[in-house]
Amino acid sequence: MSRRIQGIGMTSRRTRERMISRLREQGIYNSKVLAAMADTPRHIFVDEALESRAYEDTALPIGHNQTISQPYIVAKMTELLLEKGPLHKVLEIGTGCGYQTAILAKLVDQLYSVERIAPLMKKARDTLWELNIKTVGFKHSDGGWGWPEHAPYDGILAAAAPAEIPEALLEQMAIGGVMVIPVGLEGMQELHRITRTEHGFEDEVIERVSFVPFLSGVSQ
Ligand code: SAH
């Protein structure tokens, strides 16, 4: 393992374990989610200048006006996604730095991740490679289209908030599938969990959240 991955001081395994205790206090209970987060060095997903803050419960800048989601929200969304049973095929919208991607990759059979900003996607792919996570499918595209070639998905997780859930994402859910997605305009977003049943869609509102906006089109 490289020295950077291993970490020291504020980036050490002990610091990460303190983050896990905090997540437990915040109500995260899924032991598989907590174990995946205990195992994944979060500091290597951010710029070296920010490494020492990687385990604080805050969002941090990752360039291109985007942020790495705070640990609590990564844990919460993953837990909500997995709550109804193990997932085979999952689509993530908004790879960003790839931290959420790494956690999901450890917990589901097959993961596909879509990002609209090319350099973020490339960097995330390199970081995951460094961590020996090599099975994720990446696509540089507008996640509003989903990724129809691999549909239907048992799980969809979006890390950016649309004003309304894109129709294509609903269409690409399997029956029994679950989607965790923030919805709403800046300052008034809520996290939703949508479950597709044989008769339609169930919609649970989980809590208020703050995400970057879901934008259309791609950026090189
Ligand atoms: N979980 C990521 C979150 C990154 S922020 C992390 O922890 O790093 C959200 C990401 O969603 C950004 O990288 C942004 O570029 C991306 N995004 C926003 N709208 C998108 C869209 N329509 N399709 C694909 N990605 C999108």
Automatic annotation (TrEMBL):
Q: Which compartment or compartments is the protein found in?
A: Cytoplasm
The reply to whether Ribonucleoprotein figures as a keyword in the UniProt entry is no
Q: Which SUPFAM superfamilies match?
A: S-adenosyl-L-methionine-dependent methyltransferases
Q: Name one GO cellular component term.
A: cytoplasm
- Active site: which residues? S69
Q: Which BP terms does GO give this entry?
A: methylation; protein repair
Which Enzyme Commission number(s) are listed? 2.1.1.77
Name the keywords, alphabetized.
Cytoplasm, Methyltransferase, S-adenosyl-L-methionine, Transferase
Q: Is the keyword Transferase in the record?
A: yes
Catalytic reaction annotation: [protein]-L-isoaspartate + S-adenosyl-L-methionine = [protein]-L-isoaspartate alpha-methyl ester + S-adenosyl-L-homocysteine
> NCBIfam families given for it?
pimt, PRK00312.1
- Its family? Belongs to the methyltransferase superfamily. L-isoaspartyl/D-aspartyl protein methyltransferase family.
Put simply, this protein is called Protein-L-isoaspartate O-methyltransferase
Organism phylogeny: Bacteria, Pseudomonadati, Pseudomonadota, Gammaproteobacteria, Methylococcales
Q: Gene encoding this polypeptide?
A: pcm
